[in-house]
């Protein structure tokens, strides 16, 4: 990077560092697993879990219970990349309310 050959990727959306326990399912499975969101933004999140979420582009449905919330918020995404920290998820908006749910989730996380 110092030699000018490698350029840092600029993120489209700023990431919010969090440590938020979640439940998630993969690829149409009904089996739920536990994980932790380490970062979240309007475009995606970083999910840490026990086993790698291979392959890339695998569907993931994450359920997040907000602090003080009674019903979990459901977010749909796909695995965008894998790293030592976890799996990078890219959110998929299946309905008009998807981005609104994520915006509200991030607003509440910033406030808490």
Can you give a write-up of this model?
By secondary structure, the chain is mainly beta. The chain is 12% helix and 41% strand. The chain has 1 helix and 6 strands, in the order ββββββα. The chain has a 6-stranded antiparallel β-barrel. β4 and β5 form a beta hairpin. The radius of gyration is 15 Å and the shape is globular. The chain starts with 15 loop residues before the first strand and ends with a helix. The mean pLDDT is 84.
Layout: helices, strands, pairs:
Layout: E1 16-26, E2 33-40, E3 44-49, E4 59-64, E5 73-82, E6 87-91, H1 98-111
Antiparallel strand pairs: 1-2, 1-4, 2-3, 3-6, 4-5, 5-6
For the biggest sheet, the summary is: 6 strands, antiparallel, barrel
The helix/strand order is: EEEEEEH
Task: Look at the structure and give the mean pLDDT.
Answer: 84
Tally of individual helices: 1
Q: Strand fraction band?
A: 35-45%
Distance between the termini: 36 Å
C-alpha geometry: globular
Range of helix content: 10-25%
- Secondary structure tally: strands: 6
Order of strands across the biggest sheet?
Answer: 1-2-3-6-5-4
Poorly predicted tracts of residues: none
Q: What structural category characterises the helix and strand content? A: mainly beta
Report the C-alpha radius of gyration, rounded: 15 Å
